[in-house]
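Quick one: structure for this chain?
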Amino acid sequence: MNTKFLPTLLATCIFASSQAIAESQEDDDLFELSLEELISMEIPDVTSVSRKKQRLMDSAAAIYVITNEDLRRSGVTSIPEALRMVPGMQVAKLNANTWSISTRGFNYIFANKLLVLIDGRTVYSPLFSGVNWDVQDTMMEDIDRIEVIRGPGAALWGANAVNGVINVITKKASDTQGNLLSAGAGTEEKAFGAYRHGGEFGETGFYRVYVKAFERDGQVDAKGKDTSDDWNMRRTGFKSEWKTTSDSEMTVQGDLYEGTTRPPLRLFDETQPLDPQKDNNFVVDGLSRDQRGGNLGAYWKRTLSETHDYSFRAIYDNYQNFDYRIAEKRDTVDFEFQHYYQFWGKHDLVWGLGYRTTWYEVKNTSYMYLLEGKDSKKTELFSAFIQDDITLNEQWTFTLSSRFEHNSFSGYEVQPNARLTWKPTENRTFWTALSRAVKTPSISETALQTDGITIAQIGLETYLLPIRGNPELKSEKLTALEFGYREQFGNSFRLDATAFYNQYEDIIAYVDISQCPGRPISPPQNFCSNTDINSRFFEIPTTLINGLDVKTYGLEIVADWQARDWWKLQFNYSWLQVDALPNRNRTSFLDANEKIVEDLSASHTANIRSTMNLPNQWYFDSWIRYMDNLKDAKVGASTSLDIRVAKKFGDGLEFSIVGQNLFRNHHREFSETLSGIAPTEIQESWYAQIRWQF
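Got it. Here's what it folds into:
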């Protein structure tokens, strides 16, 4: 697509729309609302900061909410794509089905410092403490909101909530009654569809059931040639809720899914000779990665008053991954009790207890296998948390909280937090927070050997880096200081700004070892550390240590402007600086780790979103994204444009056309060497969608 006319096109659309709207504002009921009513409609209450409902304006944290309206108007078709809206959140696609997602640094394919929840269900993998984003899904129409905390949330949510918490909250079954049918097709979104039905049972019960499926096309290489990283998934699920007594309610929900991705892999195949003159010695294409799983959860809550309730949650989760590199199966059972009580009029106390256990099975392959004596099939996590919100007076609130955990990897962990809020006026808030959080070691870091996956090319030389897990690893630790300011100006403008300074200790890094890996590799010959294969290929066995200390600091700004009753603009910008330093004698490996940590995150990111309600139920939405260059990934700065044009017919039928990544035909967003996944380039795409609610 020729993009040099896009600014003119957008300006023309905006001017023409404003003229038309001036003539016929009576066409939409929305225009009957005042600016104050419009802006207040879009400031939802949040629950992720304090585990209880509170106004976003009162929250002493850098929290951003993606609403259901944001999801619909943006045209995104997956949760990872939606997270691009969040200030400071760096979302980069490695290929058509693999993302690297992080905030405030440490962005790579195994990003492991974000805790992700879907209706209270923790979805991070104990294998690598990250998230398999390609199986985290539901009907986008059923998501009520996505609450994203940038910064530590460990005092309430636990280990691995180091740089943030992503909490996906779906709608109540009572809010999704009737039928909804959604279907579409396009250039990359080849075909997708979903159907949901909601109904009632008994005198107080509501339910919904849904089915969803999609098939997405693969991307292209740097020359524009098609690759095979396509993706298909099928999913079904339900949610039901009912009152058990006059003051108690019960929710039961579950999902089943299965699907296949074909990520292009970059692996050392010992059965194939190496050719120093070839650039694609290691690319293995067309291999399927099958995944399936399901979950079932029950949630019970008793509300005695507005200031007194308690609840219990039980969740079972199954995940199965059949990968060319490694096959993994795991079953997780998670229990949690929570009690909220206000006493003495000034103390809001929330406390709880939790237990999680995971049974896992790792099938050894030529590329990954459990170390001898490290074949434990079970991990456990015991936890307790407490938080006290103390109202000092009408303007000042002081919050103390902490979480206490015992896990199978690092033993006991304590993660405290202190927050202070000052509200000089109802629409102005200042806050500060001091927090400690930890990221515990994972199975892959302590008990797994990888061979032939990590391939680094430096100049004309190629290094194979087998990585041996280290059972002596300690937790990575964070001490974070944050300052925030939030204000509502009049009826049409809202500003939110956060500054932060993070100090990390004992960040895990890989270093070389002076012994051969457990399984020698051949041909052309068995070789060991620094052995010349054929003048360009070397193997250097490595292991993991707590080898780096890191500091990050930055600024995040969010501005929402209701420019007209029919036109809203949203802007956010973030600046990030990352400085790493080895915490022991420097080596070339520690220096390389330092460079990776510093250069895999963008220094500057920004979003501008425009939503316009036009006459006769037409809608025009646009979204411009900017991400600075990723030096270590050798990816330049990029700007992308998405647009959406929609028309509603009556109350229930909507037709839309969405264009994504429109500034360039294709471009690379990310690249790394640790996972064995080869990068592809993201293409410009279009799709059409029809949504019918009846």
